[in-house]
Amino acid sequence: MTRSTPTPSELSVEFWSAAAKHRLLVPYCGGCGIRYFPPERLCPGCGEPGWHYVESTGTGRVVAHTVVHRALSPDFATPFVLATVEVDGEWTMLTNIVDCDPDQVAVGLPVRVRFLDCEGGALPCFAPESSAGSPPDRTGQRP
Amino acid sequence: MALRDVAIVGLHATEQARRLPHRTALDLAQEAVFGAIADAGLRPADVDGVAADWPGPGGTVDESASWSRSLGRSLNWVGEGMLDTAGARGVMKAAAAIAAGLCDVAVVGGGLSGRFGGRGPVGVAVAEVEFVDVWGAYSIPLFALVAQGYIRRFGTTPEQLATVAATIRNNGSSNPEAMMYGKGPYTVDDILASPLVATPFHLLDVCITGEGGGAVVLTSLERARDLPHQPVAVLGAGMEFAGNHGMPPLDYRTVGRLGAAAAQRAFGAAGVTARDADVLALYDPNSFELLRQLEVIGLCGEGEGGAFVDDGHIALDGRYPTNPEGGCLSYSWNGTQHMTLKVAEAVRQIRGTAVHQVPGAEVAVVANAGSGTRHYEVVVLGKA
Ligand SMILES: [Zn+2]
Questions:
Q1: Model confidence pTM above 0.80
Q2: Where in the numbering of this chain does the ChsH2 C-terminal OB-fold domain appear (chain A) (predicted)?
Q3: Which of the two ends of chain B, N or C, has the fewest CB atoms closer than 10 A to its terminal CB?
Q4: Which domain holds residue B78?
């Protein structure tokens, strides 16, 4: 089973190359001051193109989740948790909740980014804040 | 001319099956298109507007103008691209073109084979959008994310969702044209006993997958009066998009009420409300999405869908018989043309020729897509 990162677009190449180094980036618009996701050439807040990537705190809360029992691809071991996570108290992304019992996941659960190394880089997943593990600044150093 | 001055005058549904190895997509599309033209009492050369799948061989793949040579004439209007060749969206755009005088007779439809059939037991579509499939997301879990938020907020029970699935699947069980004909009938317990796909959905809560085609023909109501069948007018229509198809992430807060505004516009134009509907042909990729639509089209309040189905309203003998042919849960899901088949079923109901005929049906609501796809299209059809 091998999961992989996507072929990035010109908007997301920086996101994925940072993810490979276990850093979670998010588009930030200096014009209107919002963080948003997924990346768009024009900021969804103000319509201007002058955004850049900034470092996320990597912490968030589960907004919605489902336990997937049937995967489309054999690259996914089931069951796994697909979730919408609100990060930095501001922007949301689709992700997986890992390193916990799927039944433990609930709306509002505090989570922290946990990078899953895979073919082509690393996937930003999230794990319950309470679960043992190092914060993203230390996992950022690749062996 | 307004939208309501346009009528659906012809329809054709091909065979629908889990797999049709003896059929090509073009063969299905051509059977559907020429069948619908013949049903309308028209000749191919009468058609000057086309929004229909062109899968090749021959022509240019996905270009509707490729139909020009098969129809034996030049065209005055085409529609193409995602879902413009199918269902409520295809019908409202073709009707708008006729109302605007861009063409006189339009055909909407097509067919698919060899793509979704045999892929697995359930209908799935993967949005080719970044930040979706890397997390293992596909259509069923994306709808599940929305469903989970709804259930948490309103306390909808698994039995209520299963009631939706059992009701519609049982309509298909006794429809000889349905992919799942003869399977079932199903009880609520049968639905709940089927394996989980993505919480809260069990295997029998989500649509099937298969192959087939369908098409409908539209023209002005004036011309429709001279054609063989009872004309079915496009009384009103609306569409709504909450971002691009499959755009992540999804949750009930952001897309839970998707379609309410479109439905309001459609009913406003039609001069009726959802409560005037005699039959519903709503999109049923899963039990939850159908429940949600009962609320957004205005049959009951937000969060009241579970109680509404408990009261038996969507059953064949209920006040609002829903997907009497078996919907996507049992009759057909074939990529995109199952959406056209929903229009065809509504037209058959109003003509009085459906397999499970709702007595005296005059007004039907047909809808496509839903919360998990971020788009919704709805048309109100009525006896002209
Ligand atoms: Zn901005």
A1: yes
A2: 53-115
A3: N
A4: 3-121+211-224
